[in-house]
Amino acid sequence: MSQNYNVIDLFCGCGGLSLGFENAGYNILLGIDMWEDALVTYRHNHKNGKTLCADLSKLSPEKVEQQIASQRVDVIIGGPPCQGFSIAGKRIVDDERNRLYKAFVRMVSYFKPKAFVLENVPNILSIGGGVVRDSIVNDFTELGYKVTYKVLLASDYGVPQNRRRAIFVGMLNEKTFEFPAPTVSTPVTCKEAISDLPENSIEDGGDYPCPPLSDYQALMRKGCDKVYNHEITNHDERTKQIIAMVPDGGNYKDLPLELQQTRKVHIAWTRMNSNKPSMTIDTGHFHHFHYKYNRVPSARESARLQSFPDSFVFIGNKTSKLKQIGNAVPPLLAQVIATALKKQLK
Q1: Could you tell me the CATH superfamily of domain 6-182+329-345?
Q2: Phi and psi for 8 in degrees, rounded to 5?
Q3: pTM for this structure?
Q4: Which superfamily is assigned to 190-327 in CATH?
Q5: In the annotation, is 82 catalytic?
Q6: Helix, strand and coil in the chain, % to nearest 5
Q7: What are the two backbone dihedrals, phi and then psi, of residue 50, each rounded to the nearest 5 degrees?
Q8: Does residue 90 carry a pLDDT above 50?
Q9: How many CA atoms lie less than 13 Å away from 319 in the CB half-sphere?
Q10: DSSP 8-state secondary structure symbol assigned to residue 189
Q11: Of 53, 82, 210, 224, which is the active-site residue?
């Protein structure tokens, strides 16, 4: 007999993790975040999921319980910002700056879900020689969870992006979560992801300019017959001239010496490689460019590289949309984790 597990998503953003769990058959009760822009997008796309705009460091579990009408919480998911983690001391998670992480612990302690999934940046496992990692494991072990962790590469799971994320999974009752094996042997490339989207903008609700040109594009178009969020950025002529000098898959080293220092970050002037997955997409800093066109990716192209389906429409201005997309967990990666967890919960 199939069972729908109830989920709350902390620090949910626009809902990449929620979408993955939803597609794996979970019931999303509530998404919580303090950025209203992202919650507008969340509500637009998760028709059954409620949202709460709140600072989790100040939010009581009792208030959350009221929001979900005291329904059972089976799984808690989320990615608490952990910038506060330092290597100053052994119990660094007691640092005031880490109150957002501690809010996650507090919710798990209160609701005692069957499992939790916490995602973060990969170096959270190595900071201070593993002090942060060990603190996280200890905090949840004390609550009765068996915690496992691993860095997963999104392109191993069908996402056309070499995005690495540290995933912690805790299960009650001494169960050990086993991470899923890669689901693809050949990664999806940038070209396979976005080659059907044109150089110029498409007005929201416009038609696709061509049939899908790859299996991945067909997958992303499923349930959607119109294009949304493909509004391109019009760079000035000088910027376009510089981008044009960088070949497919190239970067600032391909520019003349006098232009190499025009931006002071090493990832600047990087052009995607059409035959490889994208590098980790940024949140709208305009350092990465389309493999063919002399511009940054549109929100829809970025969403494709994150594995958001075309039916998932982002709300807000262009800057906000790119930030929402860049901060999200790739839904396809989330779905693989959610599916593996569901099997093991049974």
Answers
A1: Vaccinia Virus protein VP39 (3.40.50.150)
A2: -115, 140
A3: 0.94
A4: DNA Methylase, subunit A, domain 2 (3.90.120.10)
A5: yes
A6: 35, 15, 50
A7: -85, 160
A8: no
A9: 1
A10: P
A11: 82
Q: Nearest to residue 204, comparing CAs of 234, 231, 233, 232?
A: 231
Pairwise CA distance, residues 300 & 304, whole Å: 6
- How far are the Cα atoms of 16, 56, 160, 170 from residue 339, in angstroms, in the given order? 15, 27, 20, 15
pLDDT at 96 > cutoff 70: no
Contact in structure between 145 and 174 (CB atoms under 8 Å): no
278-332 tens-digit pLDDT: 999 987 767 799 999 999 999 999 999 999 999 999 999 999 999 999 999 999 9
Contacts (Cβ under 8 Å, ≥6 apart) of 164: 122, 151, 152, 153, 154, 280
Cβ pair 307, 159 in contact under 8 A:
yes
CA distance 191 to 180: 26
- Sorted by where each begins, the domain ranges of the chain are 6-182+329-345, 190-327
Residue type, 148: T
